[in-house]
Amino acid sequence: MAELNIVLFEPEIPANTGNIGRTCVATGARLHLIEPLGFQLNEKAIRRAGLDYWQDLDVVRYVNWENFLEKNPGATIYMATTKGRKLYSEVSYEPDCYLMFGKESAGIPEEILKANPESCVRIPMIGETRSLNLSNSVAIVLYEALRQNHFSHMKLKGELHHLSWDEVEP
Predict the structure, then answer these.
(1) CATH topology of domain 5-148
(2) For residues 13 and 39, what is the distance between their CA atoms, to the nearest angstrom?
(3) Please, are residues 11 and 134 in contact by the beta-carbon 8 Å criterion?
(4) What is the C-alpha R_g of the chain?
């Protein structure tokens, strides 16, 4: 079963983290937050961001990058960055890998990227577009990793609420 991990390095915008948290709940991914955060995770702030599902989220916080590495020894980490030299779709994602994304204003620090060049992946864009929205980037890369792992443990077929797909119309 795929147990993917989303890592946010110093996220700054609560709505993005909220959207990413919702995506993690919907996919069974664990969310890792590396501090400092650009917002508070108190009950009032969570309610204001519409995170009424936060109690269902598997989330872990770390005081810094070193603390994250210490608590996750040997983790296979793919770092999404506009500076990456290979596409996110060119990687074979392990079912328990970590997909890391940087803060909205600056991305992942270049020192971390430079130390892990083979782990850096990018989402292609046209021209000089600076970047995509953080929550959109997470969804793109996460769903590619899920697809590669055959959407393990996920509901693959939907049902109508009031009708049946199998009913014959008169």
Answers:
(1) Alpha/beta knot (3.40.1280)
(2) 7
(3) yes
(4) 17
